[in-house]
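User: Show me sequence and structure for the first protein, then do the same for the second.

Assistant: Starting with the first protein.
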Amino acid sequence: MKWRALLGFIIVGLVLAYFPELRDMLGYPRYVLTFMYFAFFWTSLATSWNILTGYSGYFSFGHGAFYGVGVYTTAAIVTKTELPFLLTLPLAGVLASLLGLTVGFVVFRLPQLRGELFALLTLAVEFVVAAILFNLVDGGYGLSIGRVPYPDFLGDFSEMMFRLGLLIALLTVFAAYLVHHSRLGRGLFAIHDDEAVAEGLGVPTFRYKMMALGLSTFFAGLAGGLHAVQLSYVDIGGVFKLTVPLFVILMSLLGGRRHWLGPLIGAVIIHTFNDAFSDTRFQLLNDVATGGLLIAIILFMPEGIYERLRQRLIPAATLALLVVVIQALAIGGRITVQFAVMLLFVIALLMIPQRFYDTVIGRFVPSFESVKAKIRSGAEE
């Protein structure tokens, strides 16, 4: 199963990596590459946060600290040395991971630091890291990176950011997949349900939590290192703002924390809505829509979008295709706005209560699980 999953990730990566080459043939505007880069960026952050919090239940508000360490690692090295920025990316991940492991070595030894205390402590870590970097690296003036040299085979700047963002997102999601389907994942879920019972059953809780935290913070630093080049200019106020960890939490909650695909789904949805309503005239509408969507998800889909989407995949895919075709042929408009409208229709379908769905739609449209069961039974015969 893991080899098939690896092959699937490689195929998806190769297909998407070739997407910039199709711009002339498909005729899509260049901003689509930037839009997709930011989708990859938020997917990496949300998925990396979920490796610890979603799986183990240790709720963190300090993910922005590890992302910020990654940003400042790349920014400081690029502006002060001749080292190619590509070599700074793994270093950004390693330094963020070392910080995370240092914090974890202390707090995971203290059983009383769980729940809201752990969340507040991680938030305090972000403030401490920001203060240290402000005094030692930033100096209050920020760091101006500008355009950095990069290999020609990655294309121009937007294509390079697209491909590297895709690579980091794929690595992060694949790592989350491997953890989810491993003994480590089963141990983390046991810790999530009841840590004392997990310890009684022989789960090495301290080691598993440290492994999850190390992976989580490494990918956050890796994504931050690349994003420093996208930002071009970094400063403490812009990097260590609370919107980063809050968005990451929102994305994971929206998509579903108990599955490796949940944060990816949430990241795509939230980023799409933010981009579609990025005009300052619609900023209030964007905030209201995002808050209202979260409230609706909590009320109607407390398990997250993934579980409901898995049950209603066929009608959701059919509706999405229908909306896309209608918009493309009859309405037009910006591609990202069309994508946001399609997502709204799909989410509306997913929010229909189960009893009404079974009565109105379920009797006519088979579920994805039933289709898979029929395929398996036919293959066995």
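Switching to the second protein now.
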Amino acid sequence: MKKIFSLSLVLALALLSTFPTDACTSAIFTGKATPDGRPLLWKHRDTGELNNRIEFFPSGNGRKYGFLGLVNSPVQDGEVWYGTNEVGFSIMNTASYNLQSENADFEDQEGVVMYQALGSCKTLQDFEKMLDKMKKPRGVEANFGVIDAEGGAAYYEVNNTEWRKIDVNDPKIAPEGFLIYTNHSYTGRKDEGMGYVRYNTANEIFHKAWIRGVNVTPQWIFNNLSRSYYNSLLGIDLNQNPELAPDGWFVDQDFIPRRSTSASIVVKGVRKGENPNLTVMWTVLGYPPCGIAIPLFVAAGKDQPDYMLKSDGYDNCVMCDETLARRASIFPLSRGNGRNYFNVGMAQYFMHMLFPLEDNNFMVTERMMEEQYKKGSIDKAAISQLYGEIQATVPQI
């Protein structure tokens, strides 16, 4: 009976499995919610372009600050979909579907806004001034998550003509020091928008962990949010109970990792007064259950790991290509509605295979960062040494 019930559930979900591709899950954790007092900015990206890579943008050519950014591999000039700059300003977005009050011919400019912000902003106040000065309509309907090196942490709900700040440091708004956003805005039209199940799922996962006194770290976020197969509406967790997937298959509906997921990134910022060059951009390219987290530093400039960058004569990067190749085993069906199903067993196989490699990346990085925090700064030699240690694990993936 259990299998019959599960199969009925899968078939019912299959009828619902359509969703916007630009539909991300995100969170800001202030230092109040983390073990070392340093903020975390998480974006789990869902998009129609699965080929993503990292690019370094130096200062100059209209950019006041150099920055690292997540871009689509067939890159559109002047667009970034997550990033952090040399003065510790970091920004990401989620699409909102309940902010716009009118149809707009000018839209989808969120990547342009983030590119401009990374090149010109140091603080939240700089970003607010930038929003005010932008020509209207802005061409956006989004929630922008921002942290800076001065302790600022906020979401901005932005449409063509207005913006509203949701301050994560305000105890009346975020008493536990964190906020989660998916694809609706708190100040938008009630009960419209998208991502409510994912929002509840992420909130529930975190609150249960919070009660247990968990340390919220980038690694915890990747393992417990980016790779979670928990659905809060159904009350099922396929990682804990894979037998709920009939013959290993389940519908790709309302889990945080989805067919449309292209990357998951956590920026670990700095405490107020620390050197912003200590900021770490932990990056998983591709579908997180079969990807691996790599630490990146703006302070390394253009000398980033080559497997995260554009390949010679080829727009894509090696890391994303490798992850997408593994992902094909998780989403092998393409005929009819087959694309709406995923192979739970293959997802778990890759997670178990890759976890030891990723554990090593976190171990060597945390060991190195403890030394750099004591020094108060990080130099390119230390970053280069770390990149070299991690490079040794890359061929194994």
